[in-house]
Amino acid sequence: MKKYVGIILLLFISSVFAITPPSLPAVYYGEIVSITPVNGYLIAKIDNKVVGNITVKNGKFGNSTYKMLIYSPSDVGKTIKFYLNGSTLLHPTLKYIPGDVRELKLYYNIKTIKKKNINVSIIPLKEIPVNITIPLVNVSLDKVLEKINESAIEKVINVVKVVDVDVENISEYIKPVAVASEGFNITKTDTNVNETIVNNKKIVKGKITMNVVNTSKKGFITIIIPIGNVVSLNVTVDNKELKEFNDPEVNTSLGWYVYQEGILEITLVKDPILEVEFVKEINITKEETYERRNTWKTSPAIRYHDVAEDVKSYILKTFIQVSNVYAGNDIDLNFAKELKKNPALTTNEKITKDTILIGGPVANPLTKKLMDKFPIKVTNEYPGKNKGVIEMIKLNVKISDHLYKEVKVLLLAGSDRWGTKAAVEYFKTLDNIPEEPIFVEWKDGKAVRIEKP
């Protein structure tokens, strides 16, 4: 009898452990998306019960080693809500899943309003000065936030800085990109641009035609286009005029548009043919007028007078033109002059705009001050003899008591002068500002790209 009791007891214990294995916590870290960086603390609640908290600094919470832990085995499958400083609800919400580990983007200060017959969420983004307007048509706000195309937004931000400078190539820049959509697809896009000269003004007329197809009974698409500054703008869908979002006569059964800071945002709930017509006026410089008259060009070249002529990419040209360029000694200053006329020797300037740093932390005080923020730490030993690195970070800088803006800081530095020279020269050959570090080497009299040492 004791033998059977032992077997039954063993089976009972085994079944208990099989049914209730140890539960793992959910682990979260990430950023709070807002127009200006936020600070304080973030708490997580389930059924109004606090289940986690973490510090927020400059919009970031947690990192690769320090994260928010949520352990609440009795609440599996319930909704987690996140609050900034204990009171402001952020989006999206999540379902509590034990063992869930992820990086989050939580959106701050989203407003949802009733616009005639539909609810519209107004989503502020830190990257662009235009709020994204999303109709909640057959989709929840949380689902919309999952669909936001961050890379598309980043692309538009870079291009809108160039579109009014490099007008000759405007057709390459004013390409529509979808930020978010539900049941809509862009199947075809045509762009036509014509240029004329009237009274020393360049008149650029453009037309963008898109075939935007709704594959569902209800849905939407939000598109952004970097068209730059315009003097007139007309948007139609299905041959019907689209009104601005704040126009009292806006027809929400068609959609609307928002134009601000050179970015055109269009939200559609109707298909299929979308047309955008615009006119730009650009003053012609005396140099351009002379060039046109003496070389019979049909379109004057756009010049960046402070930028080295061997920089080919217009995105790089614009970035160099608008950036401060700082070197730490006379040798690096000469390298800097290979990018831009009149760079500066730095002591410990305050960064308030896009900036290019030439030289490593030993030579350049600004590089030394910011070195810990860059993904690759440059030293006299690393990346090594004649080797350098090209890397970029983004900083939120304070420009007034209550106003911050995001700037790019590009580092071109090496373990020695030849590594720094390689970084400068190779950077000039790129098409875009690199998001990830690039390692280079000065070899056989030229800069070459290499694998990470």
TrEMBL record:
This is S-layer family protein. Residues 348-426 form the S-layer protein outer domain. The lineage of its organism: Archaea, Methanobacteriati, Methanobacteriota, Methanomada group, Methanococci.
